[in-house]
Amino acid sequence: MKKLTRKQCSQRLYSACFKWLKLLWVGDFDLLVRIDDLKDEEKESSGFKIDAKSSINTPYKLITIVGDEESIRTMNDRALDETACHEILHIILDPLHSLLDEVITKLPKSKHEPYTNWTTRELESTTTHLTNVVRALYRAPKGK
Questions:
Q1: Domain-by-domain residue ranges, the chain?
Q2: What per-residue string of b and e applies to 38-48 under the rule 16 or more CB within 10 Å gives b?
Q3: Counting Cβ atoms within 10 Å, is residue 131 exposed (0-12), middle (13-18) or buried (19+)?
Q4: Banded pLDDT at 41 (limits 50, 70, 90)
Q5: How far is C-alpha 110 from the chain's CA centre?
Q6: 34 touches 10 (CB < 8 A)
Q7: Could you tell me which of 54, 76, 84, 105 has the fewest CB atoms within 10 Å of its CB?
């Protein structure tokens, strides 16, 4: 099998993310997809493998998804679909994440770290759970 170029990896991730943008009704935003090496970020995230990360710039209506080059290049279509759905759900949950971050900044500095860690852990867990539910519902037979 021929190795995908960086541009092909970007197009592959873009297509998968665009599908979930439309299915989950995240409209009126531009989607920017980049491919990069996210290994350094894995070290910062307690060693968890990071296949992609997302961010949103609400005033400019821009969603940015950065995919790890090696991960996107080697993952199968099912894993890519799961990753794309997961990142779009992070975008949907971003207002909640932003609110929690703002509340944490109101706490005394000495209390920030445990709450920041808790927020990160719970948002990731919730996003993963919702990813599984949404993808299962999408694959379920459509009844009358």
A1: 6-139
A2: beeeeeeeeee
A3: buried
A4: confident
A5: 29
A6: yes
A7: 76
Determine the distance from the C-alpha atom of residue 127 to the mean position of all C-alpha atoms in its chain, rounded to a whole number: 9
Structural domain 6-139, CATH architecture: 3-Layer(aba) Sandwich (3.40)
pTM, 2 dp = 0.90
- pLDDT of 106 above 80: yes
> Cα–Cα distance between 3 and 77 in angstroms, integer?
15
Q: What DSSP string runs through the chain?
A: -PPPPHHHHHHHHHHHHHHHHHHTT--S-EEEEEEE--HHHHHHTTT---SEEEEEETTTTEEEEEEEHHHHHH--HHHHHHHHHHHHHHHHHHHHHHHHHHHHHTS-GGGHHHHHHHHHHHHHHHHHHHHHHHHHHHHSPP--
Residue 64, token pair as written in the block? 């940015």
Question: What Rg do the C-alpha atoms of the chain give, in angstroms?
Answer: 16
